[in-house]
Amino acid sequence: MTDSSRPGKIVCVGRNYRAHAKELGNDVPAEPLIFLKPPSSVIRTGGTIELPTVSSQVEYEGEIGVVIGSRLTRADESQSKRSIRGIVALNDVTARDLQRSDGQWTRAKGFDTFCPLGSEVPAPADLSSLEVTTRVNGSVRQHASASEMVFAIPMLLAYISSIMTLEPGDLVATGTPAGVGRLEIGDVVEVQVASSLVRNSVAAAG
Length: 206
Ligand code: ZN
Description:
This protein is an alpha+beta fold.
């Protein structure tokens, strides 16, 4: 996935940090909870997140994004780890009120501009050393380490590959830590993972 291209699919993981599950009143799941975002939701750094008029509670979710480099079908964890091509900063923008009212998450997670992505950077040998930081208007709102995940990255990829083949260029969003919060018109939100940074302003949908 180069900066100008879109991932073939974006597979996301919900409730993968204990403190975040708790802040929304949920338990952590017994196995990974997955959902999809459409590739049409991708924007890059400098793009504008558009708040849809049908929602009054759009929130940021800073996440570690994993870019797949080689095809994975029913892979084990070590194959899964070797298949990683790179890492991106990712913002899983969510209309929290619609997520709650719809029950399933396609609309809440799927609006155009709801998947800001940073540039792809190499993955470290120790994936659990990755950290994610989210800032809104310069102040830190989320900060966590991959070591705090309920399900670690190789396990997530192996699990997803037991359901659907992961293709080169596909993207896996590995869940958001505690500290999610609302985005308002005029905010500037940044997500950083290693040296990948995505920075976006927020505006009303035109
Ligand atoms: Zn998320």
